[in-house]
Amino acid sequence: MEYERLPDRLETLISQSELEERIRQLAAEIDRDFAGADPLLCVGVLKGSVFFLVDLLKQVKIPVVVDFFQTASYGSGTTPGEVRIRKDIDLSIRGRDVLLIEDIVDTGYTLRTILDLFRFRGARSVRLCALLDKADAREVDVPIDYRGFTIDNIFVVGYGLDLDERYRNLPYIGVIQDDAAPETD
Fold first, then answer.
1. Residue 144: which CATH number?
2. Does 157 score more than 50 pLDDT?
3. How far is the first Cα of the chain from the last one, in angstroms, to the nearest whole number?
């Protein structure tokens, strides 16, 4: 598949077939854990989770409803800032089982805020499904109930993950190996 203006060296970290297989496994775990429940409320964290959410929910067999949440962090430099809601969910979560679907967990600040907010709003349960876990970057504890892959503290693109809004549509997860790659903390 050709992509216009790819970086000089984009190395595949997780292939499309590896993604597909792991997503099938995650869907089976979710089906098992929520069998017989009311429709599961699946909330995708915009924008990065969209590709993962769609492929995951196509494999899930239990009834689901879908909503989206978007945040922005405001802080100075590399210090975590205040998490602000850009787009809130439209559906009520009170008394419902919620599955928060995220592309990547790094420091954990934003996800901790979202998980706490959903619990405060009265969700019966809140679980986190993350495609990627940068465990070495974690600064606050975030329980990941469904984990796709654990990766090193590196900058990745593809399959929803971007560099300046580019490369989200790659069907795999790659690592940029040239000067275009931003430094990670």
1. 3.40.50.2020
2. yes
3. 32
Q: Does some domain include residue 5?
A: no
Q: Between residues 23 and 180, which one has the greater pLDDT?
A: 23
- Which residues form the catalytic set? 106
CB atoms within 10 A of CB 159: 24
CA-to-CA distance for 31 and 39, rounded, in angstroms?
11
Kindly state whether residue 146 falls inside one of the protein's structural domains.
yes
Question: Is residue 102 classed as helix, strand or coil in its secondary structure?
Answer: strand
Give domain status of residue 61, yes or no. yes
What pLDDT digit, counting tens, does each position of 49-97 carry? 999 999 999 999 999 999 999 988 755 544 556 788 899 999 999 999 9
Q: Which helix (H) or strand (E) holds 64?
A: strand 64-74
- Indicate the helix (H) or strand (E) that contains 18: helix 16-33
> Do 93 and 121 contact (CB within 8 A), yes or no?
yes
Residue 102: give the domain boundaries: 16-33+40-72+86-153
3-state secondary structure of 55: helix
Beta-strand relationship, 156-157 and 146-150:
unpaired
* 105 located within any domain: yes
The residue type found at 112 is R
Domain count, the chain: 1
